Amino acid sequence: WLSRTPDVLINEGKSEAYCKWCKSTIRPKIDALRDHIKTKTHQDYAKSLPSSSQPQLVRYGYRSSASQKTEEKKAELKLAVMVGCHASTKCIDHISEVLQKLGTGSALSELRLHRTKCSKLMERVIKPALVDDLMEDVGGSFYSVIVDESTDHSFMKLMAMVIKHYSKKNKKMILTPLGLVETPRADAENLYRAFTAFFASLGLKLNKLLALGTDGGLNMCGPYNSLYAYLKQRHCPHLMLVRCTCHSLDKAASHASKTLSNSVDALRKYEYAQLHKEMFGCMPPLLIKLAPSRWLSFYGAVKTHLAQYEARSALFNKVVQEAKDDKDICLTAKTLAQLHNDGTNLLYLTFLKPVLEQLTGLNLLFQRTDADLCRAFSDLRVFVFSIAGRVVKDEALRQTAQPGMLRVTELQALRNALSKQDSLEGCS
Fold first, then answer.
1. Which of 10, 95, 104, 289 has the highest CB neighbour number within 10 Å of its CB?
2. How much is the CA Rg of the chain, to the nearest whole Å?
């Protein structure tokens, strides 16, 4: 019934909407159109029309608009879930266009999904549905939480949380990311407020919190002013603290590295690509950089350097001989040549390689999501006593070691043995 105004009326200056039934113009506003539908003249004409309706297209193999829109929505949601799990939202712009061209005659031909819509679907449709399913699965059972805090580029502190619970639906333990929470500061009080507010919004009871997994930060697991202490004092007295084994191994290695000579670090700072190419006919492997916050990355650096030690030593000695008149080059080359000619540094690297290899493998074992904890702690015990066996006499180790997994009493006995001079190798 609604159409463009005839040209005759337009020439008369009545360029408005036009009702073909009532033969009248209408002000082109949504409110005016709604009011016109309710008028008696319009409704009487609508009732006078034949009751027989046009045959539906579904009878001829075409889908109805309602079912078609439902299929389109399902396709959009499935694509949004796929992008959220495996790719960046930026790629959906291209994927949707490709699927639209390939899906002629199906729901994909009408697909209209780009970055903005995809991100909103993930935020307002998929996320609430997944959270509701998770909360229903957790129910009133006990659960554990792993938390960590970091700083993003805008200097706003972020706290990430992961929940671990026994799923009655899947009949196994499940680890699920809960989300990121912003907090102005990373002190214990602000972390506690953000933590409790987030769990209140989800409807999770804090008195069902069984264990808290954290790194070794004082704001997370300190004995007094920490997130763990506040939760234990105010909500769940039975709360257990589980420190990250990987962080503990890293801290132990970092503390032990302080006893090494600084020359071990200096050996990894210079390249020798040209000499390696002349000797072996190819470019050398990339030098592995040391991560400032993870001393365990030293294993890759030590392994590569030992493989290239002779070539580097030959390079720096050659530069010293050929650049005697150039003081700058000679000074740098002389320093590096002296470091490589010193057998102590080679001894350090040779000693470190097997220890770091075992330590890095143990760290990776604890990082696995499907790790066998019995095997992991058994390997940890073997590693501890293999390190102790390098400095502690066999008699002291036999008195200390007990079969099974690593125990606190064994660690205390090892500490006592290390404090006694007569228990150490090379001491009478």
1. 95
2. 36
Structure tokens belonging to residue 36: 């016109």
What does the block give as tokens for 40?
């008696």
Look up residue 51 and give its DSSP letter.
S
Task: Give the whole-angstrom CA distance, residue 177 versus residue 146.
Answer: 9
CATH of region 139-243: 3.30.420.40
Q: What length is written for the chain?
A: 428
* Cα separations in angstroms, 210 against 82, 147, 191, 259, 280: 33, 14, 18, 39, 59
Contact 266, 285 (CB under 8 A): no
- Taking the alpha carbons at both ends of the chain, their separation in whole angstroms is 109
- In tens, the pLDDT along 156-205 reads 788 999 999 999 888 999 999 998 898 888 889 999 999 999 999 999 99
- Cα 26 to its chain centre, rounded Å, is 59
Summarize pLDDT for 16-46 with one digit per residue, the tens: 787 877 877 777 777 777 888 888 888 787 7
Determine the residue type at 121.
Answer: L
d(CA 248, CA 215): 8
Report if pTM > 0.90. no
What does the alpha-carbon distance between residue 249 and residue 384 come to, in Å, rounded to a whole number?
11
- Cα–Cα distance measured from residue 78 to residue 72, given in angstroms and rounded to the nearest whole number: 10
Q: What DSSP assignment string belongs to 352-369?
A: HHHHHHHHHHHHHHHH-T
pLDDT tops 60 at residue 133 = yes
Structure tokens at 169: 């639906």
What is the C-alpha to C-alpha distance for residues 150 and 56, in angstroms, rounded to an integer? 59
| Positions of CATH 3.30.420.40 in the chain | 139-243
